[in-house]
Amino acid sequence: MRFGLIFLLSLAVTVTGCGDDDDGGTDTGSTSDTGRDDASSDAGTDTATGEDTGPGEDTGSGEDTGAGEDTGGTDAGDAGGEDAGPISMPCELPAADCDVTDMSACEAGEACRPLSDGTAMCLETGDETVATNEECMRTSDCGPGDLCVRYGADEPSFCLRLCRAGSIGECGEGYACNGGLTDRECLRACRPIAPACDILAQDCPDDGQACTLARHPETRAPYFACRTAGENGIGERCGGDEGGCTSGTICINSSDGNAYCRQVCNPDGEPRCTEDGETCRGFAPTWEVSYCRPAA
User: Fold this and answer.
1) Is residue 163 part of a domain?
2) Which residues contact 206 (CB under 8 A, 6 or more apart)?
3) For residue 288, what are the domain limits?
4) Full-prediction pTM beyond 0.85?
5) Tally of domains within the chain
6) CB burial of residue 64 (10 Å; 0-12, 13-18, 19+)
7) Who has the most CB within 10 Å: 162, 197, 244, 282?
8) CA-to-CA distance for 38 and 191, rounded, in angstroms?
């Protein structure tokens, strides 16, 4: 049985994935804490597939705290005591001959590879392996700790670092353990998170992107990230099926039950409110950013 598994794995060209939680996609939501995490990718056979739900899209909307007044409230998670932050709680991989996330688990020239029955064992790598996050044709092209994964039928395959679901920090700076692998409950792939930016400067390098509200896929910590800009302008409804906001605006929940695109502003300088009758008196406390509000 084990021989058959090894034979199948040796024939595998790549693992097909179809998505992740933090893909830097269009921001269709607002400042609420309902953002999504990477969904899935594949795990080591040429028949497996993974889902890519996009890098950390924020699909919620933020509360409008009113005309710049101190409402006396606190950010979610402030329990009145010292908060040590999120705790890394990686899942437990099935019992196997080796640990696929341990790059030193096997002898030189070998790597610990996941098998179709959920276990793993040391198998030979190719004569030459490619670096992590480089393109590959098959898993044997990848070094220890990596798997050849493809997200999307028309996308190339890459050697992605493996990690355990629920872990924090295993993937390193700029990456998160949110690339799902088909039929793997514990095993994940490290995927890049949306790059950070300055929401006041709107300094994303690519045209068509907006610096907007985001959350880290692992820690859920709020930050500003570059994502594909929406099409809704100042004062237009946003979030969910309504879609995202244009560059320089964020989606804010209103007391009427809807969410609207509001212009980001700086009460002490630039950028200033450009719409008649609006002033820089709104505030999104979780992200600590001000926005323009129309007259009451």
Assistant:
1) no
2) 226
3) 209-294
4) no
5) 1
6) buried
7) 162
8) 8
